[in-house]
Amino acid sequence: MSDSVFSTLTKLKGNPRACVYTEPLWGLSMNLCMPYLSVYMLALELSDTRIGFLVSINTLMQVAFSFFGGPIIDKMGRRKSTFIFDIIAWCLPSLIWWQAKGFLFFLAAAILNGANSITANSWNCLLIEDAEKKQITKIFSLVIICGHFSAIFAPITAVLISNLTLVPAIRILYLNAFILMTLKVIILYFTSKETAIGNVRLIDTKDKNIFQLLGGYRDVVKIILQSRGMVFSILISGIGWVAGMINNTFWQIIANKKLLVPEAMLPLFNVFRSVIAIIFLFFILPRFLKGLLKVPLVFAFTSFFIGQLLLILIPVESEIKYPLLLVSLMFDGFGIGALATLCDSIIAIHVNPNERARIMAIRFMFIMIVSAPFGLIGGILSDISRNLPFVLNMVMLAIGIVMTLIYYRKENDHSAEQ
């Protein structure tokens, strides 16, 4: 089954190839340091509640940027938007995180990082608008695999933390992130070109300003609401986003502060989870995608649910603590890997290609508006008990299972390859 993924990788051309081939630089830059942002903030004396507050601020900024994102991308083009807003959303915040000394530094970085809602949209358009529809799911799998390959270098993080302690080690990683992310942005810009649909939108929007284009959102909302597939894909994407956000923010905290996992060992657990996700995406998910989409969706939500349940049940003082933590991460890896691929793929399958940028912007806005309170809620819950954010996640994932079963009871299912 992995042959189909490898085959897709070797046959990529044009923009999909430029996006996928430069994606490992994302893994080697941001993925090496972002998983430790929460414990980095804790080490600089921020409380769980303040950490959750910053997550909510970042989410609200993504809403604000996303509101203007569709028109901006149509006016500037997919390629140019990706270049400019990757710098604003990732390169500049990396410099701030590198030198962060307190709450205000993290607040400034969170505000700038909110611009990633624009570049996430423009980059996805650049990735798939010139791709064959039957390749979309495999392309998204490749993107996620490229990100997870950074796990190979995670032991370097463990060595840095062991020798330098947490804060100096993470500062080095953020400096590395700035350098490699800047390199990625430049290479992608010069190896890609504007998409066919992007060129059409550039012409269509040439004589219109941003505010005139914003007025077209009403028609785009009607397009979304008229498609049960679009509404469903947005709802499950929202659930997956909230669950992933809570897990990414508070996993390091519960592992370090409740389960007493040493800081230097945290990167090794990320290695394990990434390896599991890669194995799943290469060898297991392709089998699922030849059948009905309901099956992998229910599997993804259920697997993630089991991983979260195991995490909160792990005894602190026990010889089996670490084996149970690995089992929990295995279920997390399966669930996260599948959800990330399926949510993006289902959106791409149902979206109207001529309105992709504005539909994706509205989709992202909805997800961000819904998820914005959950950062602060998760922080407050974590201050009460380090288990509670993951109990909240289990509720969200259970809702995802129920929604999937209800949707496919009324809607004809289909294969992702169709």
Descriptive overview:
80% of the residues lie in helices and 0% in strands. It contains 19 helices and no strands. With 418 residues, it is mostly helical. It has a single domain (13-410), classed as Up-down Bundle (Growth Hormone, Chain: A). 54% of the residues are buried.
As for the number of domains, it is 1
CATH architecture: Up-down Bundle
Distance between the termini: 17 Å
Total strand segments: 0
The CATH topology: Growth Hormone, Chain: A
Summary tags:
mainly alpha, globular, 19 helices, Growth Hormone, Chain: A
Architecture blueprint of SSEs:
Blueprint: H1 2-11, H2 14-29, H3 37-43, H4 48-76, H5 78-98, H6 103-113, H7 116-128, H8 136-148, H9 154-164, H10 166-191, H11 196-204, H12 210-214, H13 217-225, H14 228-258, H15 266-288, H16 294-313, H17 321-350, H18 356-384, H19 388-410
Helix pairs in contact: 1-8, 1-15, 2-7, 2-8, 2-10, 3-14, 4-5, 4-6, 4-7, 4-18, 5-6, 5-7, 5-10, 7-18, 8-15, 8-17, 9-10, 9-15, 14-17, 14-18, 14-19, 15-17, 16-17, 16-19
